[in-house]
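User: I'm putting together notes for a lab meeting next week and I want to include a structural view of one of the chains we've been expressing. I don't have a solved structure, so I'd like a prediction I can at least talk through. The sequence is below, exactly as it appears in our construct file.
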Amino acid sequence: MNNKNTLEFATQLDKEDQLSSYRNEFHIPRDEEGNELIYLCGNSLGLQPKRTKAYLDQELSDWARWGVEGHFHAKNPWMPYHEFLSEGYSKIVGAKKSEVVAMNSLTVNLHLMMVSFYRPHAKRHKIVIEADAFPSDIYAVNSQIIHHGYDPTNSLIKLKARAGETAIRAEDIAQIISEEGDEIALIMLGGVNYYTGQVFDFETITNLAHQKGILVGFDLAHAAGNIKLELHKWNVDFAVWCSYKYLNSGPGSVAGAFVHEKHHKSNLPRFAGWWGHNKENRFKMPDDFDPITSAEGWQLSNPPILSLAAIRASLSIFDEVGMDRLVEKSKKLSDYLIFLLQTIQTDKINIITPKEKGCQISIQVKNGNKKLFDNITKKGVIADWREPDVIRIAPVPLYNRFTDVYKFYKILESVL
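Assistant: Thanks for the context. Below is the predicted structure for the 416-residue chain, given as structure tokens.
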């Protein structure tokens, strides 16, 4: 596609966009005068689908009518409610239905997974993570290492980009696995790095790690609903994700987890809770824990139904559109944004997102000048600033237009 930096060209792209009607499925934030804002922050919090209210109202109505009996007699019975999300989640992360479960929050799930998949001993105790991983992930792996009696100074390997570069090279990851693999117990990376937007090569990393006897997990907070995933096919051991970014389920909504089926009948240790117990005799209240032989076996408690209802609403849209079509439009949107940014004659910004990317484009601001971000905010752009010097822009294919991207470019150009 021969891109042009004109409003007419962006408008034509919107007319040709087969997913353009889905923008009408979402509430678009407006300013005090009622004008639509340019919302490019779906990597932080996705917009609310208009159908979410109907899904929530159904459960509120059933709660009012049935009380506790809603667990069995609601239109969508609450007892198995989390199972209603399994098919949608499986399509989004490329898994079998039995390998996914909606539960808890992301970092809680990460800790639960590391209870099972980080089993350090004297000869193999190291964890590999990105140096610029999201702080919560760093805190989690640090605390797990300390919990097991090791020192993060010796047991945590932080992957860094080479001097003068912003993305971590695949060959550098491979080298770490080759040289230190016998001491590495777990590789735990963000599927999409939250800061740079870099997408990692899941399959290659997993294959190389398994050859060295290393287990592999991914934090998909910025990947689920954003990029094409094939977790089962890639043989990933586990993954966790939140649902409020690209999955549009509302602030702080219930997260998800993936456990490859090869581990479902294993004797891996885990923290147990009654919702992970065999459904056939759960309510007989046995003393001994009998885990469900699926990802559900890692559940602790019955989940909040209202939050799951919001996720169901969003997943119904993903079911209609499909990840292939979403990813196709996403690539066109992000490529168009990069094209536009590269036409700006300035040395004040630098694109640090590599070609292996999803929706997010990270724009590094010279000298960490946050005034630039403040100025585009005043002009109607909702984006995201990350210290010390990055503006994150995420054109989301479900509700962003090519004209949104163009208008952002013109605003940025004007303040520069």
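A couple of points you could mention at the meeting. The domain at 57-320 is CATH 3.40.640.10 (Aspartate Aminotransferase; domain 2). The chain has two domains: 7-36+322-415, 57-320.

User: Perfect, that's what I needed.
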